[in-house]
Every structure is written in structure tokens, then in C-alpha cells.
Amino acid sequence: xxxxxxxxxxxxxxxxxxxxxxxxxxxxxxxxxxxxxxxxxxxxxxxxxxxxxxxxxxxxxxxxxxxxxxxxxxxxxxxxxxxxxxxxxxxxxxxxxxxxxxxxxxxxxxxxxxxxxxxxxxxxxxxxxxxxxxxxxxxxxxxxxxxxxxxxxxxxxxxxxxxxxxxxxxxxxxxxxxxxxxxxxxxxxxxxxxxxxxxxxxxxxxxxxxxxxxxxxxxx
Length: 220
Prior knowledge:
Number of strands: 12
Shape: elongated
Number of helices: 4
Distance between the termini: 67 Å
CATH topology of the largest domain: Immunoglobulin-like
Strand content: 25-35%
Low-confidence stretches: 9-14, 78-85
Structural class: alpha+beta
Strand order of the largest sheet: 7-6-3-4-5-1-9
């Protein structure tokens, strides 16, 4: 005989969520640029039928940019409902999409399993991923004194974090500090060198930093 309340305990434990399955990797464009921004989605299928479109995100870490999708597997005893969307353990990853474009993965992600992490790097067509304008901190797709002021305002006056912090790294050091404002002013008024690529124009950074770029004026 079970002690009083045991059945309720089993029911509660049975409904505990399973750990997410994690899909991750790097994405480059077919021109070799590392993708650092964009809308990410994983399409999950069961028997060839789409049962979940799981959103993901891009994160800068360890000197690179990574896509990450955490796929919820719902509850340990959850059974597929009428729409077939429940209990995703064992479902397949049909594709990873970036801004609606399919990512060509170097290998297929395995079927989903609770708590499992699977890495597969990929390539996406088009050269737009990760484009920004170095030095354009304002941002208005021009390099002028407003960019130096935007750097100083962000650093010392409590202004909100720019949507593309990478753009404010005018000297390409991998950090935003007062030297970035100096770099812009030197270029504009003292004949100093232009900001390193991609600047002063839209382009892809071949040596990405951890600063991040959620949205760039280059993609407006």
C-alpha cells in the first residue's frame, strides 16, 4: 500500500517539465562572413509533419558567434494532443532557418532527447549576415561627430546601449572605450586612419568580438 498522498506526488512528479534539448553551432555566409545577427528558428517535425517552430537566438561568446535553440520537450507524461504538438522527445530537426533562409548544416542534428546538446555548424546563402558600419555609433550610415558624441554619451552619460555595440568599436579593439571617440575625431579632423573594416562603410567583420550587434543600420 502506498502512503497517503503518494498518488498525488507521482502525478506532480510526472508533470515536471523535461529539460530542453539544445541545438547550437556557428553560421557563416557563403562568402565566408560569420553571422552575428538575424531571426533564428528550428523546424521540428514528427513523421514528416511540422509540429513546432522553435525560436532561437545568436550569442557572441569565446570570440565567435553562436546560434542557440532551446527546444522545450514539455512534460514527462505529456502525450501528443489532437494537433500533435505534445511531448517532443524523439521528434526530428527538419531544418534551421536564418531570416527565413535554410541553413546548410555540416551534419544533421539527431532526434530530440531531454537535456541533450547537439552542435552542427552551417552555411547560409547571401552575404548580409553580420553586416555593420564600424564607427557609426549614432547610427545613421554616416561617420561624423555625432558618432563620437554617441560613444561618449554611452560611456559617461548613461545613454541606452546601442542596438549594434560593434558599430561603436571604432578602433576595432573588441571593447568600447574613450579611444573609439578619439579614433572617430582623429579620422574626421586630424587626418588619422579610417576605422578598420568594416568601416567606414557596411561590411562583415572578419575578426568578430563579443560586443554583439542585435540590429544594424546596414540591414534597415
